[in-house]
Amino acid sequence: MRASHQAIVLADAGRDARALAWEVLRRVEETDAFADVLLGHRLESSRLERRDQGFATQLVYGTLAWRGYLDCAIASFAGRPADSLEPAVRTLLELALFQILQLERVPAYAAVNSAVDLAKSHRGGRATGLVNAVLRRAAREGVAGVALPPRDDLPAHLAARWSHPRWLVERWLAELGEEETEALLRANNAPAPTVLRVNRRLASRDDCLAALRAEGNEVEASEAAPDAIRFEGGGATALPQFRSGTVSLQSEASQLVTLLLDPRPGESLLDACAGSGGKALQAAELQDDRGRIVAVDLHRHALARLRDETGRLGLASIAAVRADATHLPLRAEVRFDRVLLDAPCSGLGTLRQHPEIRWRRRPQDVAASGRLQRGLLAAALERVRPGGVLVYAVCTTMRAENEEVVADVLQGRADVLRQDARDVLSGAAATFVDGAGALRTQPHRRGLDGFYAVRLLRR
User: Fold this and answer.
1) Could you give all domains of the chain from N- to C-terminal order, each with its CATH number?
2) What is the CB neighbour count within 10 angstroms for residue 11?
């Protein structure tokens, strides 16, 4: 039986980074919620200093990313499988082992002592002895004591060493080869950068960089996207530039997708699966708010965030519509100059931002996404006016959701042409275009999330 939210709130979690991290990790495990949402809400209500908030964030994301490896460590040091333990105790051991085995700057004794103290607060302290014994052995033996599968069984070895499910490692080995797969696995465990998008209606990137630096922030211009700034540390939404609408949060790869769409002032645009609308908002800024954008999504909470963001950014050209993208509440003859289909997908290109996804996805999920994407793409193409443009995009590295979807839908269609993304993207952005003319980014290739996007022209 799953514990209620209230049952796992710790008394000192508002003041202690490790206690807060344990609370969030348990909620992620027990509710299947996303870590970034839970962590953001919890940090807002905590009394942690900014440095401790950063530490709590590192603990949550790192523990989730390295969970597979940490479970190998539990089996090695406890002499029993990790999944034989009570979930809360397993999570506490993973949290402490992440600090002992992966964070060089954290003293082992600090990780051990804090975990033992937390164990005492759980169910009368029944697991305190186990937690103490496992972690003290881990502190003595370190990474040398973690038993991994031999490299002779390459998928099992890489899955354990780099903390990914075996089926996913096998799929990437078949598609990418050994060297590139290992590089991708390693990159997926690195923390994702915080990226700001500068609202070019209000400021240039250079002016925004200067203002942020003058306020003591560590920032640098992105080499990938012309409006992107990499921001070190947390609390980006508390920046005066965020409150004024001068910057928004959006990854570099996501920004490149909107640039591939290349919206122009005065044009009509359909964002068929808008989510919370990051790309629709960017498109409105690129149009100088002089266009007509219909942002469609099925989820009320996503559209509510989009409406909040249009207010913060002062945009009037976006209409948020709750609907199924395959059955739009529009007359059949309504067509758009530009259509963006950022299709629902497995999300396996965003494992740095959402490390929990790797443990939730199954092979059948990828196949199901591909079937959904084919239907969405076929429907979206019917909303493109003759001479108009559609961009199909997904935040995944799976071929079954990328080029295979596009090839299947375009088969036998002489009215749709693929356009080389280099015809639209320039400078550094053009270097992310592959040999087939598609935009393709990868975490192990210059540190961007894994996205695929192709630009289609309707004759």
Assistant:
1) 6-147 (1.10.940.10), 194-249 (3.30.70.1170), 252-458 (3.40.50.150)
2) 9
